[in-house]
Design brief:
The chain is mainly alpha-helical. The protein has 7 helices and 3 strands. It has a single domain, classed as Arc Repressor Mutant, subunit A (Orthogonal Bundle), CATH 1.10.10. The protein has a 3-stranded antiparallel β-sheet with strand order 1-3-2. The longest helix is centred in the N-terminal third of the chain and has 14 residues.
């Protein structure tokens, strides 16, 4: 079963098929992949960029609309976008001189599934 197929399943079905962070220990490959995503999201600029991309009407945004929102140079913004892309969170498309970015929903769905306890799962402890 492909990762995309898992995304299409309901949460309980996905949890039954594929263990989550909260239901079973992950193997090394899963940990490496998930760590890349968390590392990309661990920077406030990248988290804001992802939020701006994800919340944009029409599902995509031009880099020309992202850069003015930050007190950073265009190369720095491009570097942050490159890291989000390498983590598999966004995709890009060049149109003339501009690059447009869009969220890859399957990546955030996969992240959410990894952190979600299945319905009826073990009760967690509270602080």
């Amino acid at each position: 079963m492909s990762k995309q197929d898992v995304v299409l399943l309901g949460r309980d079905e996905a949890a039954a098929c594929c263990p989550t962070l909260l239901t079973a220990p992950m193997d090394e490959e899963q940990a490496v992949e998930l760590a890349k995503v968390f590392k990309a999201l661990g920077d406030p600029v990248r988290l804001r960029l992802l939020s701006m991309i994800a919340s944009r009407d029409g599902g995509e945004i031009c880099v020309c609309d992202l850069t003015p929102a930050f007190d950073l140079s265009q190369p720095t913004i491009s570097h942050h976008l490159k890291l989000l892309k390498q983590a598999g969170l966004i995709a890009s498309e060049r149109r003339g001189t501009w690059v447009y970015y869009r969220l890859l929903p399957q990546s955030t769905e996969r992240l959410a599934a990894a952190l979600t306890r299945p319905a009826g799962g073990k009760a967690g402890t509270t602080a």
